[in-house]
Every structure is written in structure tokens, then in C-alpha cells.
Amino acid sequence: MPYLEITDASKRYGSREVLTGINLEIEKGEFVAIIGYSGAGKTTLISMIAGLVKPDSGTVKLDGGIVSGPGPDRGLVFQNYSLLPWLTVYENVALAVDEVFHEWSAALRREHTEKFVTMVKLAEARDKRPSELSGGMRQRVAVARTLAINPKVLLLDEPLSALDALTRANLQDEITSIRREDDTTIVLITNDPDEAILLADRVIPLTAGPGATLGPSIPVTLPRPRDRKRLNECDDFKRIRNEVIGYLLQTRDRSQAHLSKRLVLPDIEPEDLSRGRPAFTFGRRPVRRCEIKTVQVPEEIRP
Hints:
By secondary structure, the protein is an alpha/beta fold. The chain is about 35% helix and about 20% strand. The chain has a six-stranded mixed β-sheet, with helices on both faces. A four-stranded antiparallel β-sheet has the order 2-1-4-5, covered by helices on one side. The termini are far apart.
């Protein structure tokens, strides 16, 4: 039985169908990356797994139980940090620990919090507030806060997309290290194929919307640890990358081919500027085509 399973899930907002026929199976300890275009429904999909969004049809199961709402067994790292600005690094992480493990002693909660602050290399910044941190440090706080609740599944919603290249690479390495140490089940949402292949065991493309669905699962056969400097020289990396990008381009072209939009032109007759503007234009409005009367000229006086 899969550890995380989505069966025939669909979601629409009003008349717009966002996701349709989503089927996904993830084993315990697996790292799966879902890649797709902006606006295709990636955040809706991961919010569905987190229990923040309910599917209109279909089911989401974790460890055999139906996901009916949010819970500490699924930790979600948001794209925009979502830190409380008046709390320090330590306090932001401790807030989650105190909420989930309130039955623990104060000393045990403090030790647990400090463990994860140290894990993301923020021990020296533990008393700083978010406004005193760089973007990469804020994202590390968000990762530490999520990991500190010991989730069964770590959900990453494009957490590195707003970071500079160097900070992004450092955090990618930290996510890899965390996964190696704790064997955590991870679902990563991204729009970067190189990032997906570097980190994941499998890459699954999400087709272009509307009505997006998951494409074929593409296994990443590259051995670990993976060296990003040598990836571009690896034939397997090039093959996987071409397969992922080729599928996404194919689904986008197919989606655009089926889209049709009727353009309705305004019912306004353009002015003939070669005749010059009337001297008195105050209160004038554009002439509508439906108001123009056609005058029939007798045949005997036609030129």
C-alpha cells in the first residue's frame, strides 16, 4: 500500500476547472518532485495534500487514513516564509513545537527547538527577528519550524524560487542533507527541472491548465550524492531533462491548440482624422455603428 495516495482527485474554483483526474502514489521515504507551469495548479495540488484545500471529488490518503484537514503529520513550507515578524528565530520555531508537543516538559521542548535551529545552521542568529535576516535565512527558519513538528511528509511549495542562485544552491544541499539523515518523505513543488532532477527520486510533470493532470512518472536514476557541477556532463541527466521539458512543452502546445476565444470589437465608428476635429467637441461621444443610417441614393443620380 502506498504511504501517500491521491485517487481521481479534481478541483475547480467557480466555473474554472484547475485540476482533474489526479492520481499519485508515493512510498514512505521517497522524494518526489512535481514540476509544472505557473498557474497550472501546483499550489492547489500541494494544498490538497496538506488538507488546506478539499478536492471536489476523489480522495487523499496518508498512511491508510483519509486526509480531511490540516494536521502535524504533514508539514508545509510556504514560498513566502510565513514567519511572525515580532518573534525571534528561536521563538518562531518554538511556537510550532509548543503547539504540537504541548504535553512535553519545558526542558524537552526547548532542547527539541534548539536541535532544529542548529540543524539549519542558525544557532548564532537564534535571537534575531525576521527583519534582521536575509531571504535564505528566513527560509531556513521556515524549514526548521516545519521539521520541528516531526511531520510524516514534508511538503515544499516552491520554497526556493524567490532566492538568489547561491542561496538556493545552499538550501538545496541542506534539504538533501535533512532527507538523508531523517529519511523523510518529501513532495517538492517546483518550476525548475534542474532542481527537480538534482533533489528527487522521481519527477512528475503537471500538464498545462485548465484542467491540469499529472503526466508520466519519470524516475531519476542518477546515483547519490549528486554533484550539480557535473550534472550537465551526465548523459542520464540530459535524457531526463529533455524528457521532462519535452512533455511539458507538448502539453502546453496541445492546451493552446484547444483554447479559443471570441473577440468582440467595440460598437464604435472610428473618426476620420484626415478631416480634422470639429471646433466644438465638448459633450460629444463616439458614434456607434448601429446609429449610422444608410441612405439609399436613386439610380438616376448615381455617378
